Amino acid sequence: MRAPGGGAGSAALAAGLVLLYYAFSIGITFYNKWIMKSFGFPLFMTLLHLLVIFALSGLTRRCARRPARPLLPWAAYLRQVGPAALSTALDVGLSNWSFLYITVSLYTMTKSSAVLFILFFSLVFKLEEPRAALVLVVLLIAGGLFLFTYKATQFDMEGFAMVLGASFLGGIRWTLTQILLQKDELGLQNPIDTMFHLQPAMFLGLFPLFAAFEGLPLSASEKLFRFHEVDRLLGLLGKLALGGLLAFGLGFSEFLLVSKTSSLTLSISGIFKEVCTLLLATHLMGDRLSLLNWLGFVVCLLGLSLHVALKALSATGQKGARQPKESCSSPDLELLLLHHQEEEDPAGFPQR
Asked: Which UniProt keywords are present, listed alphabetically (predicted)?
């Protein structure tokens, strides 16, 4: 029997976890834009974030009560984890790079288009069954993005192309990650284990891009390698490391929210988070949005909401038709992956 006040206690816990998730998720978006105003090396920043996440996830694994944590051999690691890690690294790198050029609001809206690419690759890999309702999802999201960018006063084509490219890579990223997590023999269902295994391959995949575009300018920059004041250097490294802490916290908060509530709660929270992000962007960052832009945002949200609803109905229907031990298969996992498209925590774990 439920204890008196149990419902209120559960609601309070869920609300607290949602707020914690919002703090990390919205925080990392505005952090990326803020840090890019004073430090124009997004790929180096991303590499540093990967190191911080790897260190924190390794420390967490070491402190975990369970003595045996999965550790993949190199052959299986490169074959199974490598493709997902490479697409994740490029997705995150391009997303962070785009903050040099575009506003938070345009970034948030454009990243929502990743759902279109996730749907496409899910159909290619036969993770999604073709349905007529998906056509409406595509039309709503694509139409909303068009309205949002049409005659936008703060539109930048270079940054927009970067985010759109990142969204395309995001479709590959989350499809491969879904396949990765469905392989029970790898033992990577725990988010900490997933973070730990993804970061090294992500670092190696992103480093050549960093060396080609930022290596020489960064080596000649007085902000880092040619510094004059130790205090300023340590302050900068601290600011950069903060992003890694936010990314790790985001992954962990998402895991807590899903484990204590459900993936549906997380997906719905992600939709409302988009509204909060745009409202904050207009008030804190000075983003200018016309009535047509807001209309496009609403249309896009309708498409995302429809997709979440379809996933929820699919998950409910398949749970009822399967044995209990099989109830957390593809639909739940796809629902869990759904809202990862708009925020780029380098952890690369589809926990949220």
From this structure: Membrane, Transmembrane, Transmembrane helix
Q: What pLDDT does 115 receive?
A: 78
What is the DSSP secondary-structure string of 154-219? T--HHHHHHHHHHHHHHHHHHHHHHHHHT-GGG---SHHHHHHHHHHHHHHHHHHHHHHHTHHHHH
Please name the helix (run of DSSP H) or strand (run of DSSP E) that holds residue 266, with its range, or none: helix 263-284
pTM of the shown model: 0.80
Question: What's the confidence (pLDDT) of residue 184?
Answer: 74
Look up residue 227 and give its amino acid: F
Give the span between the Cα atoms of 340 and 324, in whole angstroms: 27
Q: What are the counts of helices (DSSP H) followed by strands (DSSP E) for the chain? A: 14, 0
The structure tokens 């960018």 sit at 149
pLDDT (0 to 100) of residue 55: 95
- Alpha carbon distance 256, 87 (integer Å): 25
**CA–CA gap between residue 18 and residue 34 (Å, rounded):** 24
* Contacts within 8 Å (CB) and 24+ apart, 155-160: 155/102, 155/106, 156/101, 156/102, 156/106, 158/101, 159/98, 159/99, 159/100, 159/101, 159/102, 159/106, 159/107, 160/98, 160/102, 160/106, 160/110
| Residue spans of beta strands (DSSP E) within 190-302 | none
Q: Which residues of the chain are modeled with pLDDT < 50?
A: 1-4, 323-335, 341-342, 350-352
